[in-house]
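In this section we walk through a basic example: taking a raw amino acid sequence and producing a predicted 3D structure, encoded as discrete structure tokens. The instruction is simple. Fold the sequence below.
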Amino acid sequence: MYRVVLFLLISFTYAFFPLNAGEKDDKLIVKSIHIDGNEKTKRNIIKRELPVKIGDTIYSGHYEALKQQINNNLMNSELFNFVEVTLDIKGKLIHIYIKVDERWYIWPELYVEIADRNFNSWWKKREWSRVNYKIGVSHVNFRGRREEIDIQAQTGYEEEYVLIYNNPYLNNDKTLGLRLSANYKAYHTLDYKSLDNQLLYSTLPDENIRNNLEINLSLTYRPAIHVSHQVTAGYYQYNMHDTLLDLNERYAPEKNVSYPYFSYIFKADYRDYKAYPLKGFYGDFAIRKFGLPNNDVDHTLIKGTFRKYFSLTNNWYFATGLVAQNRLGAKLPYFLAEERGMGYGRDFVRGMEYYVFNQTDWIYAKSNLKRTVLPQHVFQFDFLENKYFGQKFSKVPLEIFANVFYDAGYVAGSVQDERANALTNTWQHGFGLGLDFVTYYDKVLRTELSWNHKGEYSLFFHMIAPI
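The resulting token sequence is shown next.
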């Protein structure tokens, strides 16, 4: 069933909506493109994200659509807080004027982070020992070319060191990208299996119960603004204490495991605003290979996503999404499956945040009906404006949306899985009411009162768009 669902997902993830198609109104030629406000960002980086170039033909009936598309593309680059687009028409020629308000790009990282699957799982128990303390620095527009450098060190519940370099524009056409990452992580406390859809933990206070080393190299091909292909090759090494294998014989094939990793991801992203979409659609397809054939680690996962966003009328919006994952071949050992089940990241049914499913074959659908409570309003805080930061923090946009939602999902597992976790092989349902806050630097805060099919209800908080 899941392969059929994934095939359908792939079929709908790519569509092409040409800007110049449609009724044949008056034709105008793009004569010039003027960009202002880009103190750090290179002009050619901005022009790469534009849907038109000098010499292109524009139909008069598409002026507003063109302005909106330019705004959406530049905001989705995550380089700017505000974008203003003006079209100046002179005879058969059109001049495009773009004014950008750049973000702050260099971020010292010094903060506290919870170590649980999500904030709600941590808040339920409020164990302050399960907290990480992170220090580092991140530059998200290095050299004004949208390059990213991120260096992090972490202590507390988990010890971690991270190094990331990302260059999305390797060649002159700006269609090829490169990403390098290295991550080392060590644990004193770690979950070793799930029982009754809750994680069970083991602790070794004086030594590491597990440590991981992950190194990845990714190449991205982005032939068009909204479409990309990414290929990744990596090397993963896991060293585990005997305790984990004693507590769960299916935890790993042996205590020291190393293997190569490969993946391919296709994305078609036509959302108006990635951080909190109201119109457009998004689709992706991923295949991930852990290890090599005939080795102890030899596993494959495929996953597909499709999300569609509708603008209705009078500030009403609707969104729906479908996500499915299926393994090919042998069942994954626990150390590979633990963060690839439902209940991790954004893969969960709302109302079921307190439950976890470590099986890797699952499907879920989400739906949202929302209405604008506060249209985007920009609050001006003059005391935050100075010669160093300019207006990068003093102008704060805010939008508020009220919504109702319904989600459903299904996790497939073996009889043994079902005996240990009774919610396996059953449909999960959740519904409720929510209030979403959207502000600058792509920050989203959601508060939701949710019910599930078990008759339980609770108040949950999230920091990502619902769909």
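Looking at the output, two observations stand out. The domain at 2-101 is CATH 3.10.20.310 (Ubiquitin-like (UB roll)). The helical segments are 2-12, 43-48, 63-75, 119-125, 242-247, 334-337, 415-420. In the next section we compare this with other chains.
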